[in-house]
Structures are given as C-alpha cells and as structure tokens.
Design a protein that fits this description.
heterodimer; A: 306 residues; globular; B: two-stranded antiparallel ribbon
Chain lengths: 306, 346
C-alpha cells in the first residue's frame, strides 16, 4: 500500500462524492421545500446518461451532448412534475413513495424499449482521455474533470441560493412555503423551478457518470439509494448537509471497499478476511448512517425551522 | 367509523337477532376469503390444474408478509420501505441451516424468529428515532445493508442465491407435497390473521392506532408510544420472517433479491392496493398483485401480436402505469372500498 494508491483512492472517493452531491442537492431541495418524496430522481439521472449517449451518437461531441442532454432532462423532469407529481404534493408520503416507485418501473421500461436491455457505452471524450499530473502522480483526466465540474456546479448552486433573489425565495420557501405564497410569490412557479433545478443536476450527474459506468436500465436505483443515505445523513433539506454527507459517503464507501479487505487480512485469518472484508465494506455507509441517526436523528446538518 | 376507540364503547350493545346479524356481517368477508382459499386445492385437483396450488401459495405467502407489514404501515402509520429484509432473514435462516445439514423445520422457524426479532429490535430502535421521510429512507437503507450482506456471502451463494437441497422437515407433514404445503401456509395465514384481529382490537392495538392518528395527544395521555411502536415493529417483522421461511420452502431457494428494495416496495403496494388498516386488505392486494403480474407477463388476451408482445416484454412498465393510476385515483384500495363497516380503520 503506497502513497499513490491511497491518493488515487481518495480522489476516487471524492469523485463519487461529487456525483452524489449533484444527485443529493436537487433531491434534498425537493424534499426540504416541497416536502415531497421523489424516488424517481434516480430515473432522471438514468435519462440524463441515455440522452447523452443518444446525442453523442448524433453529434459526436461530448460537450454538445452535455449541453443538450441536461436541458432535455430538465424538460422531462418538468413534464413528469406537471403530469403526475403535481397532484401528489398535498398527499402523504406513502402515496408519493408509491407513485414515484411506479414511475421508476415506467422509466426503466421506456429505456429498455428505446435502447434495448444491453448496456450502452459512452466513450471518454478525446481531450480528457489521458491522465493529469497531480503532485507527481497520474490521475485519469476524465475523473478529475468530474470533480471539477461537480465543484463548479456546487459553487454555482451556492451562489444561486445565497446571493440571488430567487435563492432567497427558495430559502424562504424552505422555512415556510405557505407564508411565501401569501406574500404574493408564485409558489407553483417556484416549485417548478426547484424541481427543474433538481432534474438538471441529476441529468448532469448522469451525463458525467456515463463514460465511467455502463449505461443500462435500472442504473438509477443504486445511485438513488446512496443519494437517500447522503440526504438522511446530511440532514433533509440542507444543501450544506448534502455536500458534506456526499463527500463522507463517497470517501467511506470507496476507501472501505479498497482497503478494508487488506486491513482485515492483516488483523485476522485469511479465510475470515475474505468472507468479512467485502461484506463489511459494502455495509459501511449504512452503518455510518445508522450511527449518525442514532446520535443525531435529524442528520449532521439539520435545517432549523424558525 | 365504528372501530375508533370511543365509538366501540358508545355503541349500544345490541342483543338478539340484530347483534347476531351484525356479527355475521362483520365476519362475512373474512369467512368468504378463507373459504375460497380452502376450495382452491379441491378445484385444482378436480380441474387438473396443480399449478394453481403454487400460485395461490405464493399469493398467501406474500399476503402473509403484507399482513405483517400492514401492522406498522396501516395501523401504526409507519411507512417502512425495508420490510423485505425480514423475508430475507427467514429465507436465509432456512438456506444457511440447510447448507449445514440442519433440516428440522422447527429449528428453522425458531432460529429465523429469534434472529428476526433480534434484528428488528435493534433496527427498530434506531429507525424509530426518526419519523416521516427519514423513517422511510432509513428503513430502506437498512434493507439495502442486509441485501449487500447477502450478496457478499460468497460461501452461501452470493449474488446467485442459495439453493436449498430439501424442504424443512416438519413432524407429521411432508412439505414436498404441494397440497400439504398449501394447507400449512393457509393454516399459518389464518392463525396470523386471527392474531392480528385480536391484537388490533386490544388495548395495545388501540394505543398503536391512536399514536398513528395523533401521536402528540397519545403522548400527553401518558402512553409511551415509542415502546408501542417498537413492539409493533418487532411483531410485524416476525410475521414477515415466517413468510420468508415459507417462501424459501416454496422456491427451495434463498436469493438476495428477496431483500431487494423493489420487493419492499411491492409489499407496501400490496397493502395499499388491497386497503391499508384492514385485516384482509393486504391478502386481497397480494392476490391482485400476483395475478396482474401473471396476466401482464403472459398476456393471454387476443391482442394484435405486436401489442401483445410489447406488453409481455415490457410488462413492468405497464405495471408501473397501473401503480401510478392506483395511487392517483383509487385511494381506499380494493378491499377497503368493499369493506365499509367491519375492520376498516380511518
């Protein structure tokens, strides 16, 4: 185990964390402000990846694919919001869970119908196919680009929410949506905006993840579950919580999978390590979440409602 | 509704014919359902359709799990999206013990129940610290944790699941015989339903339902609602564990997919489909679920071949549309809409 291996794994963890942040930021806003459980968020991520693959096939430019797939995902998100979800805002969480659960099935089959059941592969764009030199060791340029794009999106989101009028309304909506509506703000428009924002971020995550994962039906669900872990750990409705939670989950999951079997190997017998290492590694983030919630039921960065 | 805590006492205790008629009316739906279930083996035998036994046994096992879930979901108001993990606990108890040569059904069941109760106690304690949205997600995450645990158990099949060499050995019964297995499942289902019926009407059940309708008031009245909820959660988990043991025996297989979160979602769907907080709703829901699944995936109707093929290959998508439709338009569930008096609680 050398320094380079550790550094590479830390960066991989960071990269997973950034992807999870893009997913969680949108979802946590929808949860926190609209009080809405949207399990179909993972499907938007999947749609982003598939649309990018389709655009890439048509235009042969990753940048163009990115620039087209994200708005297209936003449109899909807004259409679903208007057609199905709008009727569910006032319902209880159970109805929302079930309806969006049904939507996941629909989206998976639409994708399977349109692109077939086999995975679709997206090539890493030519410019980013090499490695970058980070303090003397090489790291894949594309993965580095994911970190950079994710951080840029995070900063833009921070600026949007903390420095603009719309952001102020979003924050006010999180505290008391009804009062914001009573003050004459078009709360439906605000909700659509938040939902679109979340869909866009999910689409962006899907596009960026496309080249490093296989794009296939059902690819949204594992990410969705990780995203839910992030949101609950970070504190529902908190962007800051989503950011730190995402990095924490990304790092712990990646480092655990990479190093825990070796650690077990050093501490216990080989047979035990081979059996327990991967098992514990895959459970690590859930244990983290259980630990956090056992001590702080509202997550690490609870949103304080006035 | 006639079964809210105070209404029951307030109703005049009728005597004579009226009371009998009322009792009959209340028991009629349950009697009809169980009578129909008793007639299935006879019909299957007479009509030479032994495959019905397996199908209906599957409906009853999933129905049993849904009845268990309904205890927390319907009566307790706790939306658990992770109950499939207890199906897995039951199935893997059978699978792992069988792999080590222990084939006694009584041992399987006791180990499964003990493990299930212990797990539910710990998981429940942590989950119940949260509520609302966080509860939904933490139950889901715990189920995922067990799902990944099962996948990483390479010595017990890992991803591929664990084939179980032979059925659990139960004294006086041979579970390999589909008729005997069917009757055992039916008997267990009836017993659990009776237990739930008594439980829901008891002081415990009233406190549980009260804590769903108004937790703050229950707390103010001095009820330790966390303890009631935890007890309900553990009990409900144990019922699902029983279903898991039966499921392992039906399929002679324990698979990580029994714990997948989609199955947890399916169980919730069965409760809602049939009617939450009704005794038999989950069973009706399970039947509707399984039959619709069979219907769509085999599409026996005379449709244009292209359309029929589309439904068969992409039946899950049509199923999804159906789910969304049920949530949007049929809010009380199938059984809930029929059972107007009786045990509907809302």
């Amino acid at each position: 185990m050398n320094a380079q291996l550790i550094a590479t794994q830390v960066l991989n963890g960071l990269q997973l964390g950034i992807l999870l942040f893009l997913m969680s930021a949108g979802l946590t806003l929808v949860f926190g402000i609209m009080n809405f459980v949207n399990l179909a968020h993972g499907s938007l991520y999947m749609m982003g990846a598939y649309l990018a693959a389709a655009m890439l096939g048509a235009f042969d430019s990753f940048l163009l694919a990115l620039l087209l797939a994200v708005p297209a995902t936003i449109l899909i998100g807004l259409a679903v919001d208007r057609l199905v979800l709008a009727g569910l805002y006032s319902r209880d969480h159970l109805d929302q869970v079930l309806a969006t659960f049904g939507l996941i099935l629909v989206f998976n089959e639409i994708v399977r119908f349109a692109w077939g059941p086999a995975p679709v592969y997206i090539n890493v764009p030519q410019v980013l196919s090499g490695t970058v030199d980070l303090f003397g060791f090489p790291y894949p340029a594309y993965r580095f680009a994911i970190i950079a794009v994710g951080l840029a999106a995070g900063l833009a989101l921070y600026a949007l929410i903390n420095r603009t009028r719309v952001g102020m309304l979003i924050r006010a909506g999180a505290a008391d949506a009804e009062m914001v509506g009573a003050m004459g703000v078009n709360i439906r428009l605000l909700n659509a905006l938040i939902f679109g924002l979340g869909a866009g971020l999910a689409g962006l995550a899907g596009v960026m993840a496309g080249p490093i994962l296989s794009v296939q039906p059902g690819m949204g669900e594992p990410v969705l579950v990780l995203t839910l872990v992030v949101i609950v750990t970070g504190g529902i409705g908190s962007i800051r919580g989503a950011f730190y939670g995402a990095l924490l989950v990304g790092l712990i999951d990646t480092l655990g999978r990479a190093f825990l079997p070796a650690v077990f190997d050093a501490l216990a017998s080989k047979a035990f390590a081979q059996a327990a290492g991967p098992a514990v590694a895959s459970m690590l983030i859930y244990l983290l979440m259980a630990l956090v919630l056992a001590m702080r039921p509202h997550g690490l960065f609870p949103v304080r409602h006035a | 509704m006639s079964s809210t805590p105070y209404a029951k006492e307030a109703l005049p205790r009728g005597t004579g014919a009226a009371a009998v008629a009322m009792a009959v009316r209340r028991a009629a739906p349950a009697a009809a359902v169980f009578l129909a279930l008793c007639l299935v083996p006879v019909a299957a035998h007479l009509l030479g359709q032994p495959f019905w036994l397996g199908l209906v046994a599957r409906i009853m096992i999933l129905g049993l799990a849904a009845v268990g879930l309904n205890l927390v979901l319907g009566y307790g108001g706790m939306v658990s999206l992770g109950h499939a993990m207890y199906l897995g606990v039951g199935a893997y108890s059978v699978g792992i013990l069988s792999a080590h040569g222990v084939d006694s059904g009584l041992v399987h069941m006791s180990v499964a129940l003990a493990v299930g109760a212990a797990v539910a106690l710990v998981v429940g304690l942590i989950c119940l610290k949260t509520s609302g949205m966080a509860f939904i997600m933490i139950t889901l995450a715990f189920a995922q944790m067990f799902y990944f645990l099962a996948i990483s158990l390479k010595q017990y099949g890992g991803d591929d699941g664990l084939t179980i060499a032979q059925h659990s050995r139960v004294p006086g019964l041979s579970l390999g015989d589909p008729y005997q297995f069917y009757l055992l499942v039916l008997a267990l289902l009836a017993a659990v339903c009776f237990l739930c019926h008594r439980l829901v009407g008891s002081r415990f059940g009233m406190a549980l339902r009260g804590s769903r309708q108004n937790p703050r008031r229950m707390q103010a009245l001095g009820f330790p609602i966390l303890r009631y909820r935890l007890a309900a959660y553990v009990l409900s988990a144990m019922i699902v564990v029983v279903a898991g043991v039966l499921l392992a025996n039906l399929a002679r297989f324990a698979s990580p997919s029994y714990m997948s979160w989609t199955l947890s979602g399916d169980l919730v769907l069965m409760c809602v489909l049939g009617g939450m907080a009704t005794l038999l709703g989950p069973i009706v829901g399970a039947a509707a679920f399984v039959l619709l699944e069979e219907f769509l995936s085999s599409m026996p109707l005379e449709l244009p071949p292209v359309l029929a093929d589309l439904v068969r290959t992409h039946w899950l998508g049509f199923f999804g549309v159906f789910v969304v439709g049920v949530v949007l338009f049929a809010r009380r569930g199938l059984y809930g809409a029929v059972a107007t008096g009786g045990d509907a609680d809302d």
